[in-house]
Amino acid sequence: MTTQIIETFDAVSIKKLSFKFKGETSAITADCVGALSGETEVQEIVKKCGSNEVKKISKPIKMTLTITAHVPLSVYREFYGLKHNEATKKGIYSYGPSAQSKVFALGADIYDDFEDNSKLLAFLNCSSATGLTFSIENGGDEVAALELEASVSVDELGEYYHEAIVGELETDLTDEWMSNLTAETIKIAVEQESVVGKTKVGEKIKELD
Fold first, then answer.
1. Nearest to 178 by CA among 198, 164, 159, 193
2. CATH of the structural domain 13-208, one choice from 3.30.450, 2.60.120, 1.10.10, 2.30.110
3. Of 81, 105, 102, 100, nearest to 156 (Cα)?
4. CB 42 within 8 A of CB 57
5. Cα dihedral sign, 153-156-159-165
6. pTM, whole model, 2 decimals?
7. I want to staple 27 with a disulfide (CB 3.0 to 4.6 A). Which of 20, 77, 121, 151 is the partner?
8. Domains in the chain: boundaries
9. What gap in Å lies between CA 206 and CA 1, rounded to an integer?
């Protein structure tokens, strides 16, 4: 696949979201998505000289996502921690003090209709940020989409969020990204990492010479 530098990307539509819950071998997708938004909480570290502020840095400490979509029932149940209680009849799912949201990786396929290009988003370490919420309107003109709020924690790569414009990738990762998203999806392969390491060592030796 030929790579290129993409100068602009307009996020026009969300083609699909994928939820890969911990312990599962494949993701569950949702293709009826209304909105996806993210907000990052930052910590400000300030240095003062007397009453004057002379230095300040901001570090991200938490990210929150809001997902508005029509999702499969399995996503809804896993997200909030609904489960079958052995004391109840088959087909009944319950929610109570022992309910625990499953950790999941969220993938998103965003499309730029103007440039015919896609951007892939990844949040590898997510969990529900709220307890079970729902609203049912009787006789409404439109079936309301669910609003899910998720907390994003630091993943095994030390990050909250990853993105890639498909046109800039050496290989199109869309299928794996949206069906089986893990850190391995985006990490450099061991063989490639070894080559990169050897290259850097060679460049360092040349500098010393």
1. 164
2. 2.30.110
3. 105
4. no
5. negative
6. 0.85
7. 20
8. 13-208
9. 32
